């Protein structure tokens, strides 16, 4: 999961090995000890795989699915076979099927940077999941997991990756963490893990997919190009859930007007959910309200922001009226903000009269601040409701069900990856759109699925639409992009109706992306 800034998510560790030495008993008449060779040096042992395999089954779409679960660490080695890091992963591979080595395999990761893969794992894709209330109220601790009958394990094998410094993944002893903490550094380490796992488990002939959430969108786009260039590994698909690929679409401040445009439809959806819109809009569906907000955002609103102070008083007034109408904010507030409302202000202002704030990751959730003054909220109500249940259930599940033992803290979401290097993008916004375009052009079979939640104030759906509209794909490749829109937030999958729809959409996508038909010339 993530917080978009160079944002989000850790401590060094060692893998301990148990060596059993078998020796002959020393005769009673001999008390002499062998003389050690002073010139002999102790042999340096290379880190070994530390992986636990367990067998399970789950019912998905009415069918009993048997699978192996593997939890452990895979060492990343350089050409001299020296370990640079140990990457923790959990994989699920279906058993009892023909040509198992050719089943689709999906490499899954969340974002941050600094997030483990727990959110996609226990919220959406894995064979176990947390069930959250559909009314966006917090769960009462203690928490529990249930079988996930909406998992994708019947369609694809799953590999959940925790990038270095997240989860249980750490640099090897003596290795600096900075070699993993950056845009390009991250692509190299995650890309090498995918290569090494694919090689170790003989999956080179499987249809391969990457699935990333949030900053995982930047990572997925970058990996599509990196895996091609470094390993000549072609993907069948890249799935991006609540992702960001171009940071300019999200970064408020300075002269960047784009985020005000891309966030507006989510403001409208949020206001609709909390019944803060005029009655004629409130009586419509959220899809209808969002569509109207998108048209206004790309039309009059964008033109008004572009004009800056050259906007006439009449134009300003008309724009302010419509902006207030679609956001549920007062006309007075919109005017004082000079038509530019950043996310923090909106989250504080929308329900200020009710002494409530709305969440960032999921604006359905409401919070309570100390007072009703100020420009921003004290905490993210959705994060407060979601982080604890994922943390508790994972720590129990990995030990009790997967039988993996580890004394260190499993870093769910950590700031220990900072500073995060964006050297390639110095002087400009982080933007992996051209990398994705080149990958899709070089491999016309590469298809991309984009899942977006209407109530996501971290990575709004309209920001992703703006990004993909500026991929500048050749017309014959545009059909390789598929969108899914859902009534939920950043993790739309914690809302049961959205997870049901998402699974249905993804089953179709995997069928299409794994098909043998040729692309349109």
Characterization of the model:
There is one protein chain. Helix content is 33%, strand content 16%. It is of the alpha/beta class and 521 residues long. The chain folds into two domains: 50-248 and 388-513, Alpha/Beta hydrolase fold, catalytic domain (Rossmann fold); 251-380, no CATH class. The strands form three sheets. Strands 1, 2, 3, 4, 7, 8, 9, 10, 13 and 14 form a ten-stranded mixed sheet that branches. The protein has a two-stranded antiparallel ribbon with strand order 5-6. It has a two-stranded antiparallel ribbon with strand order 11-12. α4 runs antiparallel to α6 (286-307), α4 (258-273) runs antiparallel to α12 (461-469) and α6 (286-307) runs antiparallel to α7 (313-327). The longest helix is centred in the middle third of the chain and has 22 residues, at 286-307. Residues 1-47 have low confidence and may be disordered.
Brief descriptors of the model:
521 residues, Rossmann fold, 2 domains, 10-stranded mixed beta sheet, two-stranded antiparallel sheet, 14 strands, disordered N terminus
Concise synopsis of the structure shown:
Helices cover 33% and strands 16% of the residues.
Radius of gyration: 25 Å
Query: What percentage of the residues does DSSP assign to strands (E)?
Result: 15-25%
Which structural class should the secondary elements be placed in? alpha/beta
CATH topology value of the largest domain: Rossmann fold
The CA-CA distance between the termini, in Å, is 38 Å
Helix content estimate: 25-40%
User: Quick one: biggest sheet?
Assistant: 10 strands, mixed
Oligomer: single chain
- Say how many strands there are: 14
Mean pLDDT: 91
Describe the global form: globular
User: Would you identify the CATH architecture of the largest domain?
Assistant: 3-Layer(aba) Sandwich
Q: Secondary-structure element order, as H and E?
A: EEEEHEEEEHEHEHHHHHHEEHHEHEH
Which regions are unreliable across 5 or more consecutive residues at pLDDT < 50?
A: 1-47
Number of helices: 13
How many discrete domains?
2
Q: CATH superfamily of the largest domain, please?
A: Alpha/Beta hydrolase fold, catalytic domain
**For this structure, what is the CATH class of the largest domain?**
Alpha Beta
């Amino acid at each position: 999961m993530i917080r978009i800034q160079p944002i989000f998510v850790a401590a060094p560790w060692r893998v301990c090995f148990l060596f059993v030495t078998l020796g002959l008993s020393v005769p009673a008449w001999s008390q002499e000890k062998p003389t050690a060779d002073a010139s002999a040096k102790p042999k340096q042992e290379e880190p070994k795989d530390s992986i636990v395999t367990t067998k399970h089954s789950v019912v998905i779409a009415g069918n009993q699915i048997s699978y192996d679960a593997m939890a452990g660490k895979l060492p990343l080695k350089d050409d001299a076979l020296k370990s640079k890091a140990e990457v923790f992963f959990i994989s699920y591979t279906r058993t009892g099927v023909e040509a198992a080595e050719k089943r689709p395999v999906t490499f899954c990761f969340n974002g941050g940077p600094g997030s483990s893969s727990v959110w996609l794992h226990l919220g959406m894709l894995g064979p176990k999941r947390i069930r959250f209330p559909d009314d966006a109220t917090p769960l009462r601790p203690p928490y529990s997991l249930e079988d996930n009958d909406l998992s994708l394990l019947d369609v694809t094998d799953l590999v959940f990756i925790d990038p270095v410094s997240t989860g249980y993944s750490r640099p090897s002893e003596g290795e600096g963490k900075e070699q993993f903490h950056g845009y390009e550094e991250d692509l190299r380490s995650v890309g090498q893990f995918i290569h090494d796992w694919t090689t170790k488990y003989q999956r080179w002939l499987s249809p391969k997919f990457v699935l990333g959430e949030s900053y995982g969108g930047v990572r997925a786009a970058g990996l599509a190009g990196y895996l091609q260039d470094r390993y000549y590994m072609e993907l069948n698909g890249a799935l991006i859930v609540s992702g960001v690929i171009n940071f300019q679409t999200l970064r408020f401040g300075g002269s960047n007007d784009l985020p005000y445009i891309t966030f507006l439809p989510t403001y409208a959806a949020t206001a609709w959910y909390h019944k803060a819109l005029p009655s004629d809009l409130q009586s419509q569906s959220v899809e209808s309200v969002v569509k109207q907000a998108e048209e206004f955002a790309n039309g009059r609103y964008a033109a008004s922001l572009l004009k800056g102070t050259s906007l006439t008083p009449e134009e300003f007034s008309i724009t302010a009226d419509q902006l207030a109408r679609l956001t549920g904010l007062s006309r007075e507030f919109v005017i004082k903000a000079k038509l530019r409302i950043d996310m923090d202000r909106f989250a504080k202002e929308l329900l200020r009269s009710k002494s409530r704030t709305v969440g960032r990751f999921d604006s359905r959730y409401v919070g309570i601040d100390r007072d009703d003054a100020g420009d921003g909220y004290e905490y993210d109500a959705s994060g407060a409701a979601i982080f604890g249940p994922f943390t508790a259930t994972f720590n129990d599940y990995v030990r009790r069900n997967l039988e993996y033992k580890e004394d260190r803290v499993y870093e769910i979401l950590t700031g220990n990856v900072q500073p995060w290097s964006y050297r390639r993008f110095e002087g400009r916004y982080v933007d992996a759109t051209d990398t994705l375009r080149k990958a899709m052009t070089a491999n016309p079979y590469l298809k991309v699925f984009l899942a977006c939640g209407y109530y996501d104030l971290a990575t709004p759906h309209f920001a992703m639409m703006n990004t993909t509209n500026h991929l500048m794909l050749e017309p014959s490749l545009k059909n390789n992009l598929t969108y899914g829109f859902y009534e939920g937030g950043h993790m739309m999958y914690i809302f049961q109706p959205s997870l049901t729809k998402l699974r249905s959409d993804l089953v179709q996508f995997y069928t299409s992306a794994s098909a043998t038909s040729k692309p349109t010339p």
